[in-house]
Amino acid sequence: MKDVSFGQYYPTQSFVHKMDARVKILLIIAYIVGVFLVASYHFLGFGACLLFVIIATIFSNVPFSKVLKSIKGILFIIIFSAIIQIFFNKSGKVIWWIITDEGLLNAGFIVARITLIVLGATLLTLTTSPVEIADGIESLMSPLKYIKFPVHEFALIMSIALRFIPTLLDEIDRIIKAQKARGADFESGNLFKRAKALVPVLIPLLISSFRRADELADAMDSRCYAGSKNRTRYKKMHLTYRDLLGFILTAGLITGVVFLNGFYVLLVI
User: Fold this and answer.
1) Rounded to whole angstroms, how far apart are CA atoms 257 and 35?
2) Residue 56 falls within a domain, yes or no?
3) Which candidate in 25, 97, 123, 173 could, as Cys together with 1 as Cys, close a disulfide (CB 3.0–4.6 Å)?
């Protein structure tokens, strides 16, 4: 549980850390769009997206192992999606039993897409603190204030959710260790038995979550928190040359993906 990187902030001084949070949020959205623009079975486009992640990781001074650990949290989803594509895709040439070549290609395509999206989102949370993410979301959504949308409250909810991901993971680890000390078995048996053994973990986790939420509400109330009314910020967000370079690199990524898609179509024709 402690190895899961998503939602955790890696404090250091780097090019990416010093970028404006609003720009990083927009760039990650553009990056996800670029991943979805990759044509079917065209893995060169995924190669361009992977190169973008590698370059961003180098400029962020975050260890590659820290970014790759985010895959652990979605490993079950990746394997399950691949199995569905391999065994239930009937189109294409049969290779063995009911497994077809298109099923394998679809499985690889789905795995690559999910993995790249998670790597990009993880890099955002590792290089941007929850407070900066909340401020960035609030700034980007500020036009919605004119239609009475609670922008500040929405950004606060997002910030608290990201902040408590590592806390809840530590809480799950502590509960599992306590259950093991009382004789609980989470490692033997098949997948369904292991999942059933985790049910007793959910009740103390929910109780702990509600207790933390109640304590947080009391702490905010004792500090006279009143939402966005008359609220100021200690740090002002402003754009720099780093943000411009980020825009250029991301625009280059999307342009490269579109170009590779067109090149792939010409090869097929």
Assistant:
1) 8
2) yes
3) 173
Domain membership of residue 24 (yes or no) is yes
Extract the tokens encoding 248. 């250029």
CB of 198 closer than 8 Å to CB of 186: yes
Question: 27-78, pLDDT tens digit by residue?
Answer: 999 999 888 888 766 778 888 888 889 999 998 898 888 888 878 777 888 8
Tokens of 40: 């079917």
Give the count of domains, the chain: 1
Report if residue 252 sits inside a domain: yes
Using DSSP's 3-state secondary structure scheme, residue 107 falls into: helix
Structural domain span for residue 110: 1-128+239-269
DSSP 3-state assignment of 46? helix
CB 162 within 8 A of CB 8: no
**pLDDT per residue over 207-248, tens digit each?**
888 888 888 888 888 887 776 666 666 677 788 888 899 888
The answer as to whether 48 is a domain residue is yes
